[in-house]
Automatic annotation (TrEMBL):
Name of the protein in question: Glycerophosphodiester phosphodiesterase
Membrane-crossing residue ranges in chain numbering: none
Pfam families tied to this protein: GDPD
Source organism of the structure: Ureibacillus terrenus
Span of domain GP-PDE: 1-237
Gene Ontology MF terms: phosphoric diester hydrolase activity
Gene Ontology biological process terms in this record: lipid metabolic process
InterPro entries to which the protein is assigned, alphabetical: GP_PDE_dom, PLC-like_Pdiesterase_TIM-brl
Amino acid sequence: MQIFAHRGYSSKYPENTMAAFKAAAKLDITGVELDVHLTKDREVVVIHDEKINRTSNGKGYVKDMTLKELRKFDFGSWFHPKFLGEKIPTLAEVLDLFKGTRHLINIELKSDKFVYAGLEELVLKEVENAGLKDRVIFSSFDHEAVKRMAGLAPEIENAPIFPYSILNMKWYRTLFPAKALHVAYRAVARRPVLEAIREGIPVRVYTINKKEQVDVLRNLGVEGIFTDCPEEIKGMLKQA
Ligand code: G3P
Ligand code: CA
């Protein structure tokens, strides 16, 4: 079963920081998951929320600040004082770290209340510059963004994210034959997702931090999981 470190090794390090990605890069796991937003000066940065309030000592929307302004804030000490000084990473910096490893990198395109015009093109450019086209997966809750990515780079794996089950996966797939599906745990054991698994479509599930959940998902035949505790889950799977 594939294991992806969700927002990096986020149970032990501040999520979506270089510290979390460096720790994940040392693990023998499938890959990492990260979230991207766009700054006022159109830099692709790695952060989960559209605002910096929860994960830094600053306040405000990413879209309203330049990269230089964002770099002034601390993205580590909210998690633990020992991480004081962690800066918001750019996508280019994270990709650079993984050039030297074999990990897959799942880039989740965020949109939330805003749609970042041209985010897909900018993200793809960063991936091409890093020479990592064969090791990335593009995903989003915004299925239009995933479709646009599929149009720009059909050879790269893409996955719409489903927080809930949908009634008719066959119908959905006539609209958009995505290469993979990323699904919330609550939505997995539903007929449309189980049918997709039976058809051989890779299904990956978030966010899985408990052994009981891993056992259920292995029995269902899911391709992979996103976890905040990659080391512990890897250990569990080795023992089983
Ligand atoms: O991509 C799976 C998962 O990361 C989606 O949820 O809120 O953690 O970005 P979230
Ligand atoms: Ca995510």
